[in-house]
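Operator note (shift B, R.M.): manual run for ABC transporter ATP-binding protein requested after the automated queue skipped it. Running by hand, logging everything below so the morning shift can see what happened. Input copied straight from the record, untouched. If output looks odd, do not overwrite the archive copy; leave it for review.
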Amino acid sequence: MSLHVDSIRKHFKFRQVLNDIFISCKQGEVIGLLGRNGSGKSTLLKIIFGSLAAENRFVAIDDIRTNGLFQNKGLIGYLPQESFLPGHIKIKSIVNLYCGPHQAAILFEHDMVKPFLAKKSRELSGGERRMIEVLIMIYSTARYLLFDEPFNGISPMHIEKIKTLIQQNTVKKGFIITDHDYTNVIAISSRVILLHEGAIKKIGGLNDLVDLGYLPDKYAIELEKNTFT
Ligand SMILES: Nc1ncnc2c1ncn2[C@@H]1O[C@H](COP(=O)(O)OP(=O)(O)OP(=O)(O)O)[C@@H](O)[C@H]1O
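Run finished. Output pasted below as returned.
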């Protein structure tokens, strides 16, 4: 069971943003995707999901090639960087829209969702909205989830709960997660990769992130005390 992404190429005007990108994600894995601002992380996730066209794109789920949004339906879920909840609809209805009855019933009782069920999304704070979106995606039917900045605006206590939920849900799902909160991404990732100058680099330790210019030098010694390999 795997999501297989290969040969992705994309340019905007004269800039080649993605150059023959390869990523695989098995059910049970969390892939941490890091990269500097503008390195192409969101572009890559949109192309994998099928909402953005590319010059070249190969995506296969469990060895079956998918050609875009409609073939991905129910298989790949995408949490965009910007909020996607319709502002005028109650959270309870949105949960019903995205989740099956069994998963919706779990969310209705979840302490991070229950207090907001009767509210409309526009009545929530930015962090509350993000929290709901992330939970809806985790409990959606999709088997592979692409998360673009899931921790943005969320307080540390809730980030911990979300990390636990992601890890619990890897039993049946695979995740590709990008967020500038790299310590929390690294903490839950089975593998970490860096999008650098249009290519994917495998990251074996925190020093690689310094060497490739993602983390400043001053972090090297302190961060090497932690390890994610
Ligand atoms: N529609 C577009 N037209 C032209 N250039 C674009 C377009 N979308 C993205 N780009 C450019 O492609 C590059 C990659 O953008 P992308 O949003 O994928 O980066 P990112 O790694 O997600 O960045 P960030 O971490 O800041 O969110 C950027 O230089 C951006 O300016």
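Quick read of the result: Residues 2-82+145-223 form a domain with the Rossmann fold fold (CATH 3.40.50.300). The chain has a mean pLDDT of 92.
Leaving this for review. - R.M.
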